[in-house]
Specification:
mainly beta; 14-stranded antiparallel beta sheet; 7% helix
């Protein structure tokens, strides 16, 4: 039964999280130590003598005002402030819970304009009797460069409690928590920003895109395969879609977890409308039931 709430947690985190059963401590909720939510510095002091790694050839560069440091600039026609997506999560014929993904506002982090992206998930009243999930994940994603400056995770899953905050030093390529600091690739993505970054990319059938992904003090190279096109119907309407499959590039990482496929609208927005994952027992489906496109970019 625990696999279902874990899937909801993966879903609300933006589908590009480590697969179910692969999160540190997932096998023992009660015994995993709680990660305190600390007051990390709201403004990191970056030395200007270092410049970031070479960006993708399709990116342009923009200067960090007053530092001489350059950061990439990427086009985004997929999402904007006010976008709100509501999903019904179903386990077989039973409604198991609901997930909401929202671009709530543009705020400022480290002197940069950032999308404040919030994702929340909770189990239904019925499933909460067995295992209750109430999770919230937040990412502060650079508007111009589409990479994160800050990430927060607040998980409430059964008896398990976890709160984590990560500050991304995108100048010196570091992920900083209250526990440690680790080196990361240039413009690394968190589990939520990675999903929105993927939506803004050119997705061509038969091709893949690759994303450097950081989660839980680990790095996960992620391949997103673009499989095919389909027309599908969900409670929110009928949509022409492109089907993608996120695959973590590590040996045996999907050994006990099955496959996850996502249907995105086949237009500039790449809005997710359907997600399917086969579990050890049965399968879980997330269907878009309501949406608000928000502001135009």
């Amino acid at each position: 039964m625990r696999a279902l709430p874990l899937f909801i947690a993966v879903l609300h985190a933006g589908i590009f999280a480590p697969p179910v059963g692969h999160r540190p401590g997932a096998g023992s909720y009660a015994s995993e130590p709680q990660l305190p939510c600390t007051s990390a510095p709201s403004h990191l002091s970056f030395p200007v003598s270092l410049s970031p790694g070479v960006p993708d050839s399709s990116d342009s560069l923009s200067s960090l005002q007053g530092t001489g440091v350059s950061l990439r600039s990427m086009p985004n026609k997929a999402f904007g402030v006010g976008e709100r997506l509501i999903f019904s999560v179903e386990y077989g014929p039973v409604k198991a819970g609901q997930a909401v993904m929202e671009v709530s506002e543009v705020t400022e982090i480290n002197g940069r304009r950032c999308y404040h992206i919030i994702s929340e998930a909770e189990t239904s009243e019925l499933f909460s009797n067995f295992f209750e999930v109430k999770d919230r994940v937040e990412s502060y994603m650079d508007v111009e460069g589409l990479f994160p400056w800050r990430f927060e995770k607040h998980l409430r899953e059964g008896s398990y409690r976890s709160d984590m905050r990560v500050e991304y030093d995108q100048i010196n390529h570091r992920a900083i928590t209250d526990k440690d600091t680790m080196d990361v690739p240039p413009f690394v993505q968190d589990i939520l920003s990675g999903f929105y970054y993927g939506r803004a990319q050119k997705l061509k059938r038969g091709k893949s895109i690759f994303i450097d992904h950081h989660s839980g003090r680990k790095l996960y190279p992620l391949e997103v395969k673009v499989l095919k096109k389909e027309r599908i119907k969900v409670p929110a309407g009928v949509f022409k879609c492109i089907v993608i499959e996120p695959v973590l590039k590590a040996v045996g990482i999907f050994k006990h977890t099955g496959r996850l496929r996502v249907w995105l609208t086949d237009d500039r927005r790449r809005m997710p409308v359907l997600m399917k994952s086969k579990m050890i027992i049965g399968s879980v489906v997330a269907k878009l039931i309501e949406y608000d496109l928000g502001e135009e970019n």
